[in-house]
Design a protein that fits this description.
About 30% of the residues lie in helices and about 25% in strands. By secondary structure, the chain is of the alpha+beta class. It folds into 2 domains: about 80 residues, OB fold (Dihydrolipoamide Acetyltransferase, E2P) (Beta Barrel); about 160 residues, Up-down Bundle (de novo design (two linked rop proteins)). The strands form 2 sheets. Strands 3-2-1-4-5 form a 5-stranded antiparallel sheet. Strands 6-8-7-9 form a 4-stranded mixed sheet.
Length: about 250
């Protein structure tokens, strides 16, 4: 029998068999890992097993490649704190759904700790900016990091305004020139300046959505999760995730 213990954040729960459920959990040392929770579909467990819940876990299986079973203790029911806040609940659901793009059973402690920090940041009004930066971290961890620190054409580190949807490289407004309408907007808070109002957050969500959809989920021929679209709808200024975000250019 193989057994390990770990800390984890619940990503999703799916009914399985007679009253049981399969839980997907992002763990600190074992990555995104599934396991069967006996009685996990019961009404009592359903209140505990909500996306974003922090759990202390024990996993057991006869062989390493088996589904195995989870037993757990609920530590922090993050979603329960924000039942009256549509945006924050959408943020939790979206982050948990985006985390399903991570490879199974591959430790990614940086992403795990980043998600822990994001859930803690829900106490702050700056949490939407933290959310966008967490998605950038997910892209980087998966090997799709964006080059947002300097202009790809001039090397300038100030005045960055756009990002190439093809290369993920930043450019200044001056360097973008007539290509600007084809580029993704780089919100000021990602360039080290500016506020994070709804329009800026919407631009940040549109930016990360383009690369998540094309690279993180696209590599397995999946669309963005519905929960990610619902979060974008909470910031309507520039939230339409349409085909224009798939445009490519020569920058």
């Amino acid at each position: 029998m193989i057994e390990w213990r770990d800390q984890g954040l619940l990503l999703s729960v799916e009914p399985h068999g007679e009253g049981h459920a399969v839980a997907q959990v992002l763990t600190e040392a074992h990555g995104r890992h599934a396991g069967l929770v006996h009685g996990g579909a019961s009404s009592r467990r359903a209140h505990e097993l909500q996306p974003g819940a922090a759990l202390s876990l024990s996993w057991r299986a006869r062989l390493p490649d088996h589904l195995g079973t989870y037993t757990y203790e609920l530590e922090t029911p993050h979603a329960a704190f924000w039942l009256e806040d549509r945006r924050r609940l959408a943020g939790i659901a979206s982050a948990c759904a985006v985390a399903t793009a991570l490879p199974e059973r591959e430790p990614m402690p940086g992403v795990y700790h980043g998600l822990c920090a994001l859930l803690a940041a829900l106490e702050s009004e700056a949490w939407p900016a933290a959310y966008v930066m967490w998605e950038l971290g997910v892209l980087s961890a998966l090997g799709y990091g964006l080059a947002l620190d300097r202009c790809v054409r001039t090397g300038a580190t100030e005045g960055l305004a756009y990002v190439s949807p093809r290369t993920g490289a930043a450019v200044t407004a001056e360097a973008a020139g007539e290509l600007a309408p084809k580029l993704l907007r780089l919100p000021g808070f990602l360039a080290g300046e500016g506020e994070f109002d709804d329009a800026a957050i919407a631009a940040g969500l549109k930016l990360t959505a383009h690369f998540l959809k094309r690279d993180a989920f696209g590599i397995t021929h999946r669309d963005l999760p519905p929960a990610r679209y619902r979060l974008a709808d909470c910031f309507p200024a520039e939230s339409a995730l349409s085909a224009e975000s798939d445009q490519e250019d020569s920058v």
